Amino acid sequence: MDIDRRAFLASVGGLAVVEALDPEAKAEALEHYMMEKLDEEAGGLIIDGEAQVAAAAPDATIRRGAGSLFGPQGPADNRKMASLAPMSDKPTLIEFFEKRFNPANHVLQSATRALKTGMSEEITLACLLHDVVLNLVKVDHGWWGAQMLEPYVPEKVSWAIRYHQALRFYPDPANGYEYPELYTRIFGKDYVPQPHIKAAYDYARNHKWYLEARMVTVNDLYAFDPNAKVSIEPFIDIIGRHFKQPKEGLGNDGSPTAHMWRTMMFPDNPL
User: What's the predicted TM-score (pTM) here?
Assistant: First the structure.
């Protein structure tokens, strides 16, 4: 993806704002900008061959929150947002992809690349889910995402999602991951991750599942192609085999993280 440095800086409030951010916040802002730009260009998620594009409603509400579902942050908070499609009584993960994560282009590209390069089904699922929590919250998305998904996926999958956030800042050429040149271009050669990111990397580097998390970063780095055509269809069977869909529906099952799914179901609730 082509990134216009001036456009990126403007999106977060200008050079002065970016310079005031710590290194981790700068990297997060860049990744979020790239994902939002990709989704803008894609226009919609392809489900069963049909482009699902939400139309703006004249009586749209104002949302406030930390994730993509809640609209832009900062001074732009008061922008009217399009109404969301209502969820069913027993929402499934596929339904969340259709109605809340849409168009989800980046994670679909990531998982598609994992599938094409022969990754295991668990790694492919981790690639498919590694950034969906950004619809709810953006800061420390690796940790938040792992927590949200832990009751429903194999432990290896949530572990890989948790630590991909830290691993992306550390090259591993032997396993196909170079430090992103874009980070150097946008943030400068003296970019230094925060201490908790370094500690997480040191821990993950010596863990038995290190390669699972590393493969998420490998497929994450190359998943920002604005011309890619992707679909949820190739992953439906993988989801069926490895995602524990609660019979009550996500958000209604009483799990420790059901409230996180409900927040995405009802982002317009005032309280």
Answer: 0.77
